[in-house]
Amino acid sequence: MVQTKNKKIAILIESHYDGNETAAFETFFPVKGYEIEYVSNLRGKPEKVFADNNNPSNTITVTKDITTDVILDNYTGVFLIGGYAMDMLRYEVEVEEGEHGRPKEIPVATQFAKAALENPEIIVGAICHALWIFTPVPECLQGRRVTCGHNIMYDVLNTGAILDYSGPHKKLAAVCVDRNLVTGRHPFVVQDFMDVYLDELNKKHQH
């Protein structure tokens, strides 16, 4: 028996998001019974408009703020969009020195992603550059097997994560699952990623 409660995916987004991923998710998941909602750190604004990295004339308007409007327990999945959106979300206007020379506070969006990953009832997805959001809290990825864009492999390794080298033709794996984290190498494999991600989501709705 499949439950219908909380069949929702929060997509964490900012400008320079990968439009191939948003287009694929908007087409694929609603017909599979999952509602998608775009969420972000709106930084005190009632709404923000974010631009596609590949085609800036394509935009997405977001009105749900992760600090005030989003209750993680209402979602089965949290997807961290690719492109450079997660790098944009790591940006903090003001910083103060904390212990051991590290910033006193971690980015708000990183806190959100960390909370999602720490909830075993939520399936977290990330494609290509999206694992950047966890670099301020390396313990989140430490010991987890992942795949990612080849150009951020060393950022990911520095968190203590384990790269999955099982892809063909000397590439990282197209898709990798480690507990409640599903990672994809590149937007080119978004369909493979969505198929695996859907399977993991559905497991949460089966008795």
- How many structural domains does the protein architecture include? 1
**Which CATH class?**
Alpha Beta
Question: Structural class of the helices, strands and pairings?
Answer: alpha/beta
Count of helical regions: 5
Q: What would you call the quaternary organization? A: single chain
The proportion of residues in beta strands is 15-25%
Write the CATH architecture name. 3-Layer(aba) Sandwich
From the 3D structure, determine the CATH topology.
Rossmann fold
Any low-confidence stretches, pLDDT <50, length ≥5? Answer: none
User: Major sheet: order of its strands?
Assistant: 5-2-1-6-7-11-10
End-to-end gap: 6 Å
User: Which percent bin holds the helix content?
Assistant: 10-25%
Question: What global shape is seen?
Answer: globular
- SSE string: EHEEEEEHHEEHEEEH
- Total number of strands: 11
**What is Rg?**
16 Å
Can you give the mean pLDDT? 95
* Biggest pleated-sheet summary: 7 strands, mixed
Fourth-level CATH superfamily: Class I glutamine amidotransferase (GATase) domain
Word description of this protein:
This protein has 207 residues and is α/β, with parallel strands linked by helices. A 7-stranded mixed β-sheet has the order 5-2-1-6-7-11-10, sandwiched between helices. It has a two-stranded antiparallel ribbon with strand order 3-4. Strands 8-9 form a two-stranded parallel ribbon. The model has no long low-confidence stretch (mean pLDDT 95).
List the helices and strands and how they pair.
Blueprint: E1 8-12, H1 19-31, E2 35-40, E3 48-51, E4 59-62, E5 64-65, E6 77-80, H2 85-90, H3 108-117, E7 123-127, E8 145-146, H4 153-157, E9 162-163, E10 175-178, E11 181-184, H5 190-203
Parallel strand pairs: 1-2, 1-6, 2-5, 6-7, 7-11, 8-9
Antiparallel strand pairs: 3-4, 10-11
Helix pairs in contact: 1-5
